[in-house]
Amino acid sequence: MNFRKNYYGSLGVKTIDVRVSVESSLQGEVLSIDCRIQQLCLWIRIPHMYRPIVWKVLLGILPVSTKAWSYVSNQRKEQYNLIKEATSILLNDPKMYFEMMKEELTPKRLACMLIVELQPDSAYNVLQILESNPPEHLIRMAKTFLEICDDLDEVDAFWMYLGFIVKLKVPLDDQYKDIYDLQSLLNYHSTELCNHLKKLNIPLSQITTPWYKSYFCGVLNYQSLEGIFDIIIGGESAILPYIALSLFLACSRKLLACKSDKDVYNITNNISKHVDLYAVAQTSVDIWEKPLLDKMNHETKRNLGLK
Predict the structure, then answer these.
(1) Which has more pLDDT, 196 or 125?
(2) Is 67 buried (19+), middle (13-18) or exposed (0-12) by CB count in 10 A?
(3) Which of 4, 63, 82, 86 is the most exposed place for a label (fewest CB within 10 A)?
(4) What string of H, E and C letters represents the secondary structure of 91-114?
(5) CB-CB neighbours of 110 under 10 Å
(6) Dihedrals phi, psi of 42, to nearest 5 degrees
(7) Which 3 state secondary structure label does DSSP give 221?
(8) Are 87 and 100 in contact (CB under 8 A)?
(9) 3-class SS of residue 15
(10) Helix residue spans in 234-307 (DSSP H)
């Protein structure tokens, strides 16, 4: 679903074949990340067949030098196998080691490997986290990356997952600080709903913190998140409150009918069952990028394949 192309069309903005734009950005011995690939992620939905390469380059998994890709990919595979083995040793579980080496990778195992790799100098903390199970947001994100990389291999899934965590500085524990002003956004787009939630004494952060912490993994399906992740990996995590806003707007009638905070939480805790996930993804992008697109000059639009 190319919801971004459809949106541009609704504004009277013509687009050229995005495949051509992406292919041209991936040509040459040294790729231009900031000037080309990153901008394409922000403004043009990356075709599925090119997404792994684009993401791996932007996440630092592959270097900008295309000649080194084969060598680096082999090194990443060797590193992956070592991390997999180290995780089983730390857990002191021979059975798990056999399963991890032979069976399909699970979200929990992927999250365990992530923690082992990112906290190599703190074995005690690693064991503490692993023994009590990895935090839920890491497991949700692991599941999403495994789904996105379903037609690839688990090595790519692990490194893209790790690259995303590192780039966005996702906490490996349950600590999180909400830095987004959703209250103002909601008040602007639906004063009625904003006032209703205030009347019920519901702090928005109590609802949205688990969403933000997991980057909406487990809230939106992976098909809806792919285009959103293009934008986030391109450097704009500021789209997150717009996704939350779109979720609230999508089920506003049901929320306005709630008589208590319990009624609201019953809806928001299972919000994916109450909304059209694809419509939510499209709406969030529409609201976030419209003012930015309006300010974009004609030359930039032309360079990005927008006319």
Answers:
(1) 196
(2) exposed
(3) 82
(4) CCCHHHHHHHHHCCCCHHHHHHHH
(5) 24
(6) -75, -35
(7) coil
(8) yes
(9) strand
(10) 240-250, 252-256, 261-268, 277-295, 298-303
**Chain centroid to CA 183:** 22
C-alpha distance across the termini of the chain, in Å: 21
| Residue 243 pLDDT class (50, 70, 90 cuts) | very high
Tokens of 301: 């639009």
What's the predicted TM-score (pTM) here?
0.85
Integer angstrom CA distances of residue 226 from 160, 200, 216: 13, 34, 11
Phi/psi at 178 (5° precision): -75, 115
Ramachandran area for residue 106 (φ above 0: left; ψ -120 to 50: alpha; else beta): beta
Residue 17: band (very low, low, confident or very high) from pLDDT cuts 50, 70, 90 = low
Alpha-helical segments (H) within 119-239: 123-131, 136-148, 154-167, 182-189, 191-199, 204-213, 222-233
CA separation for the pair 68, 74 (Å, rounded): 10
> Which distant-in-sequence residues (6+ apart) come within 8 Å of 18 by Cβ?
2, 5, 40, 44, 45, 46, 47, 305
Q: Give the amino acid at 66.
A: T
